[in-house]
Amino acid sequence: MNCLIVDDNKMARTALKKLTDQVDFLAVKEECSSPVDAYNYLKKEAVDLVFLDVEMPGMTGIELIKNLEKRPIVILISAKKDYAVEAFELNVADYMTKPVTLPRLMLAIDRAKKLHENVDQLKPDLSAREKDYIFVRSNSVLTKIKVNDIIYIQALGDYVNIFTREKRYTAHITLKGIEEKLPADKFYRLHRSFLVSLDCVDGVEEGTAYIGQHPIPIGKQFKKELLAKLNLI
After folding, report:
1. What are the helix and strand counts (H, E) for the chain?
2. Phi, psi at residue 170, to the nearest 5°?
């Protein structure tokens, strides 16, 4: 996994680099001393994982995450525990407090690695749309989900919630990414945050589609095409 270390403290960056060097599958590609430098770097280069300090001058690590259009997997690091709740609301892989120890770092990296493997598992291939199933990793277990069992999918940043009639699954992938895995004639993106199974749409009322008792908002730009796909007469 290619990594980026972001911390305004040079000693902290050096210490973290020494720890990550002990992990064979990690490769630190760059170190940045400010969120702005990291932002500019990530605009040009792609990495799998970012070790990101929270409290830095000018912009916090959390603010950096919110400003990234395409987010890599993030492990947040701070001298305080105060930001943990906000951090996990942003779906970071882990939140570590300083000083970082090797055992604690290994735990965080293991979580990040599992997320990274899940992304690889869901990358589209040439025959993806022809398959009648997908696999989702949940708690280190790969679960097979039949495409026909999926009723709708909700975007949550770089994650999605996949809903079937019986259960909800969470996967680390964008809505666009999983859309590319599913047959285009069966699923429609009726809102920037929702992808629905056309067969499961039970009704449409003004700006809302209903899947059973689940109301799904319809984006204005999608309404006309959705009605056409529903075979409106």
Report:
1. 7, 15
2. -115, 135
pLDDT score, position 61: 92
**pLDDT more than 90, % of the chain:** 50
Do 208 and 179 form a contact (C-beta atoms < 8 A)? no
The pLDDT score that the predictor gives to residue 194 is 94
Which domains, ranges and CATH numbers included, belong to the chain? 2-121 (3.40.50.2300), 128-229 (2.40.50.1020)
Whole-prediction pTM: 0.54
- Count the neighbouring beta carbons within 10 Å of the beta carbon of residue 44: 6
Question: 168 — phi, psi (to 5°)?
Answer: -120, 135
Interatomic CA distance for residues 227 and 203, integer angstroms: 11
Using CA atoms, how far apart are residues 214 and 187, in angstroms rounded to an integer?
16
By the 10 Å C-beta count (0-12 exposed, 13-18 middle, 19+ buried), 7 is classed as buried
